[in-house]
Amino acid sequence: MVYIIIALLGLSVLIIAHEFGHFILAKLNGVKVEEFSLGMGPKIVGIKGGETTYLVKAFPIGGYVKMLGQEESVDDPRSFSSKSAIRRLSIIVAGPLMNVILAVLLFTIIGMGRGFASTSVDRIVNNSAAQKAGLKHGDQIVSINNKKVQVWDDISIIVGNNKNKPLDIKIKRNNAEKKYVLTPSFDKKTNRYMVGIYPVYIEKPSLSQGITYGYRENIFFVKQTFIALSTLFQGKMSANDVGGPVTMIRLSSQAAKSGVWTFMLVYAFFSIQLAIFNIIPFPALDGGWIFMLLFEIISRKKIDDKKVAVVNYIGFILLMVLMVVVFMKDIFFPVKL
Length: 337
Hints:
Helix content: 40-55%
Number of helices: 9
Number of strands: 10
Largest sheet: 4 strands, antiparallel
Strand order of the largest sheet: 5-4-6-7
Strand content: 15-25%
Structural class: alpha+beta
Number of domains: 2
Distance between the termini: 18 Å
């Protein structure tokens, strides 16, 4: 139960960060914020602070910032509807952007706290593909098969995906770039394909190294999330691999048992997923607003507020139905962890 509570608190931090992005940009753009809610459903507690009511609701699976004139056109200079498309876009984009910033911060803290594997070669296994090709200690892996290498996990994934196919590896040695071709071999001990190199591990990174690692790790997980989404939309991913809030709580509670770094890593990943999920161009999501506002900016024609309200209402209903379906799937057909 303690770990479940910790997991719920972690999820709440992601939601608060997301909604705070909307909140702070609304304030900076002079928009009145009527409600700031953590959670959905029945109200548990509400506190009035200035012109905004801060709410905590029963189900911690979402949240919202209610702005004056967001649901309908209001003739008020402080309404959302009265602001230019660019100002409204900045308010909407700020939510997902805050989740990305939070993920970078978490990855940076992880890197600073426990160190990380760099993309430079430390040790080379005797008689391995890397040794036979001519790689040396200190070589920095720049790209593999013309795919840029940002973090060590990039190398592992590219090698794993290509298995025993030849790889074009570009390395940097003494400020000069060199190219090698090598073919991974199957290692029975680890049950995977390997090229035979171990990374230089940076145990006590500087602040700049930590921030760079946080940024690059964020880019890595963003790419992996988009790849997973692409696989899902192509129908190549099983429904058994897809989970919702219950799966998130189960996974994060297990991560909490494994220690603070694993817990933070999981939530950094969740923060990225929350950002990307919200920019999907679906009505009621931030992505739906972004799509409509970009249309307004490009066409220089304002979309009728009543039509926007109807589309968002339908989208919200569909989204709630989808959440119920995913929730029921999580309960009766849980993802195997």
